[in-house]
Amino acid sequence: MSSEFHHLPVLLKETIEQLDLQPGAVVIDGTLGGAGHASSILERISPDGLLVGLDLDEQALSTAQQRLSGYGNRLRCVHSSFREIDRVVDSMSLATVDAVLLDLGVSSHQLDTPARGFRFADAQSENTPLDMRMDPGSGHPTAAELLRRASAVELQSWFQRYGELPGSKRLARVITERRETEPLRTAADLLRTIREAGIGRGRRHNPATLVFQALRIAVNDELSALRDGLEAAIAVLRPGGRLVVIAYHSLEDRIVKHRMRDAARGCVCPPELPVCSCDQQPSLRIITRRPVRPGEDEIAHNPRARSARLRSAERLGAAA
């Protein structure tokens, strides 16, 4: 039910300002979610603008359509990953778009629905399956399936690369040993294994946060999807169009920062070459030299906004 799907939009005011929307604009919301940003976007591009909302979560799409039904065909919802933005735009016969928003991470509804497996709260962990798929109907492997069949080397790599977890090798070894007699099916199973491996002893923060983050990224191929999505977003923007990305952990933010920086620089020649030979021109102008962070009031109202970092850039005409 739509009434059960809630999501507080992060950095809402700042996002709308950075998108720099005008009436009649065509906007892509690549992570529609609970439509938190979408309603403000639709208001700003009234009376005849178009918002194309993408999401892998069909429940989120259904909820957004119900909540925003008053906008009629000015909202088009598409069950797709934002890595397919360019194909979606092409399928709608849109030449270019005026703005693209990517609000990365997991929605409040997904976090608060135990059946989705994104959280590890002890009170519910025994009944929380290790799923973690953004698109439960995709047929892709769940976190439990990855834990069952991945090698210790693969597990260690995920925990190191995606969670930056101290003790990754030890945890990977304990998982592969334990699963021989006791498969890891629930969040409680994984929590017990983390404790058994002695991960995070004496640390202030719960190491399970990093473990669950790493598994979620692996399950959904999130970092590769982000790289693809950034390329697609830049490709579909008109000259002067805006790209706004909200990231929630350093791995995502680093990818966004570096891609925007590279696109703003243009040239990809090795620095030792005295003259540019690649002839690549800058395609973006960076607007946010430093990421925009939520203020104390927003964090107090929505603690999950604490780690948010917003970056924005404008498409240049020379490379369009």
What does this structure look like?
The protein is of the alpha/beta class. It has two domains: 2-109 and 222-315, Rossmann fold; 114-220, Orthogonal Bundle (DNA polymerase, domain 1), CATH 1.10.150. The protein is built from 13 helices and seven strands. It has helices at residues 12-19, 38-44, 58-67, 85-91, 108-111, 143-149, 152-163, 168-178, 187-196, 208-220, 222-236, 250-265, 296-301; strands spanning 26-29, 50-55, 75-79, 97-103, 237-247, 284-286, 309-315. The chain has a seven-stranded mixed β-sheet, sandwiched between helices. Helix 2 links the parallel strand 1 (26-29) and strand 2 (50-55). Helix 7 (152-163) packs across helix 10, helix 8 packs across helix 9 (187-196) and helix 11 packs parallel to helix 12 (250-265). The longest helix is centred in the last third of the chain and has 16 residues, at 250-265. The radius of gyration is 21 Å and the shape is globular.
Short summary:
The chain has 320 residues and is an alpha/beta fold. Helix content is 39%, strand content 13%. Helix 3 (58-67) links the parallel strand 2 and strand 3 (75-79).
